Structures are given as C-alpha cells and as structure tokens.
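Re: beginner question about structure tokens

> Can someone show what the tokenized structure looks like for a real chain? I only ever see the sequence side.

Sure, here's an example I had lying around. Input first:
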Amino acid sequence: MKNKNILFYILLALLLTTVISIVLGYHTFGFTVGFIFAFLSLATGYFYSMKNREYMHQNYHADYVDRLKNNKKI
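And the corresponding structure tokens:
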C-alpha cells in the first residue's frame, strides 16, 4: 500500500462505518462519524485544491491572463 492512498482508505472506512451504523440503528454514533468524515473530506479537498492552481476559484483570472499572454493577445 502506498502512502498517498492511506487518506483514501481512511475516508472510505469512515464512509462505510457511517452508512453501516445508521442502517443498523446506531444513529448517534453514525452521525458523529459522519461529521468527522465530512470534515476530513472537505479539508482534504481544500488542501488538494491549494496545491493545484486549476481548482482554486481565486486564480481563474490569473489563469485567464496567463493564457492570453501565451497567445500574444495582450
């Protein structure tokens, strides 16, 4: 197992734990694990988007300007 897949397996385990516990009737535990899963998922998406400029909303304009400069339209 590679190191970069560990986070994926943790999120998958949390998702399965959430669904199984809610189906079995352990709603409080399922919702608690679900909130932890949601927080980790959002945090992971945010940090990966910070690493990749294409997914950041604030850099759409910078990307547009770079593309125009590369095409010699400015």
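Each token stands for a local structural state, so reading them left to right follows the chain. Residues 17 and 51 are 29 Å apart (CA to CA).
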